[in-house]
Every structure is written in C-alpha cells, then in structure tokens.
Design goal:
47% of the residues lie in helices and 20% in strands. It is an alpha+beta fold. Helix 4 (120-145) runs antiparallel to helix 7. 18% of the residues are buried.
Length: 280
C-alpha cells in the first residue's frame, strides 16, 4: 500500500520534501560561511571563489601556470606517488572538456587541512542532523495543531480522509449522516493530548549549530559568556584554533611553495578574512 493511500494529506510526503529543503538550506549556509573564511591575494583575473569551493568540496586544489597565467583547478591523481604520498602526475580536466597533465615540478597541491579532508563531510553531517530537528519541530507543531486520530469503519474511510484534510487545512468539519443520531456514531475521535516540545528542539538546535560552527573553524558568540570561567573559554577556543590554524597553515605553505616554484612571479598569499572568526 502506498503512502498516498495511508496518509491522504501527504504528511509523510511533505516530510521528505521538507527534509530535503532544510538540508539544502543548511548546506548553503555552511558553504557560504566557509567560502568566506580566507582572503586570497592572487591575480585579479582568476575567480578567487573557485579555490575555496574546490577545497571545501574536494579537500584539495592544484596551483599551476597555464599559458603564462596563474591557475587553480580541481585535479585527479594519475600515476605513482612520491615518498610522502603526493601524486607524481596530476590530471586537470577543465569545464570545456580540455585536459592538462602536471607533475611535482610544475604544480603545487593545496590541502584544505593537514589530512586533505573536505569540509563537505562535516557540513553534510550537521546539515542532516539540523534538518531532522526542523522536521521534528514541524511534526510536533502539526500534532499540536490537529492532535486527534479519527476512527471509523471501512465504508467511512473516504469521509474520514476528507475530514482530516479539512482539519489539516483549517476548514471546519461538518458531518451529515441520516442514519446516525450522534457524531460519535459516525466517526470516533481520539485526542492524542500532544505536548509542544519546540523549545527543547530549538535548544538542541542551538547547541548543534554551535558545535558545527566550531568544527568548521568559527567561534560562536555565547550569550552566557559572562558565566563561563576563563579556563572554559580557553578550552572552547583551543579546539577552534586548532581547526583554523591547521587550515591556514596548509594554504600558506602551498602559497610559499608556489612562489618558490615561480620565482615570486605572482607572489600569492592567503590570510584569515576579516570577521571570519565570529558567528553572531
């Protein structure tokens, strides 16, 4: 039996649709925030946003020269590896379908962090949890809005479905049955006595968002900061610092290597973007 027949108001179908929307919303939020964490000083003709997009979603990006211009692009590993695990051959495929092969002598690999792990894994995990919490809030609000179950026999099923649609759509339900003297004889109603739990869910969301921001290298502003002792503040910041400076170190190291490779022809650099450390 399909969900459509069991749930005539398409509540389950809406739940799946809403989960996808919430998940996408959080992924977009995290993507925009992460894309603005660093400020790159590179030639103006190159779209700087591509570098962070590649790092966020692929964990690595390749810096190289092409037609005497600075370029950075996604790549695939091709061939063997050196003693440190870096690929000897790096194959770049551009959006127009053209390809170019590079090696350790004419290209530099930038890692998103010391392990080369993309942020998208972390973003997706937290986006999924937050989307589930939003769905739970929706379910709880819907249950509070129509906290009942309607019961009847098989011949009354169409009438029950129509009645619940009216309940769910804020339309008064009116029943006219000539063979019954009371409404209870037509349709039996069970009160679920649903309790609003939204405040608990929102508290959990706030904590989960703060955890996500920490994992992505941001310091969420704590509205109870005055209650935290110095050691607690330092402990919270130390984990964020380790994430932030690990990412910055790998980017700066790649810039230094690229500058040496090109004899400072482009003199590229990277630093934390102004205001990227805080989430208000």
């Amino acid at each position: 039996m399909s969900n459509k027949n069991i749930f005539p108001n398409a509540g389950i179908s809406n739940a799946y649709v809403n989960y996808g929307r919430y998940y996408t919303r959080y992924m977009n939020l995290f993507s925009k925030m992460c894309a603005g964490r660093f400020k790159w000083s590179i030639p103006e003709y190159y779209p700087v946003q591509f570098i962070e997009q590649f790092l966020i979603y692929n964990g690595k990006v390749l810096l190289f020269e092409l037609f005497d211009k600075f370029e950075a692009w996604n790549f695939t590993e091709n061939g063997g590896f050196d003693i440190h695990g870096y690929p000897l051959k790096r194959n770049v495929t551009f959006v127009n379908g053209r390809t170019a092969m590079f090696d350790e002598n004419n290209s530099i690999i930038v890692k998103n962090n010391s392990l080369g792990i993309p942020d998208s894994n972390t973003m997706s995990s937290y986006a999924s949890q937050l989307a589930q919490l939003d769905c739970a809030i929706d379910v709880n609000l819907r249950a509070c809005k129509t906290p009942i179950i309607l019961k009847g026999n098989k011949s009354q099923m169409d009438s029950i479905k129509a009645a619940y649609r009216q309940f769910d759509g804020d339309t008064p339900v009116m029943v006219n049955d000539k063979n019954s003297t009371t409404l209870r004889e037509c349709i039996e109603v069970f009160d679920l006595k649903t309790t609003y739990r939204g405040n608990e869910y929102y508290t959990t969301k706030d904590r989960l968002m703060a955890e996500a921001f920490n994992a992505l290298g941001f310091y969420p502003e704590n509205d109870k900061a005055e209650r935290l002792i110095v050691d607690e503040v330092n402990a919270n910041n130390s984990s964020v610092n380790s994430v932030r400076y690990d990412m910055l170190k790998m980017r700066q190291q790649a810039c230094d290597d690229f500058n040496r490779m090109t004899n400072n022809k482009y003199n590229i650099s990277v630093e934390f973007a102004a205001g990227s450390e805080l989430v208000v």
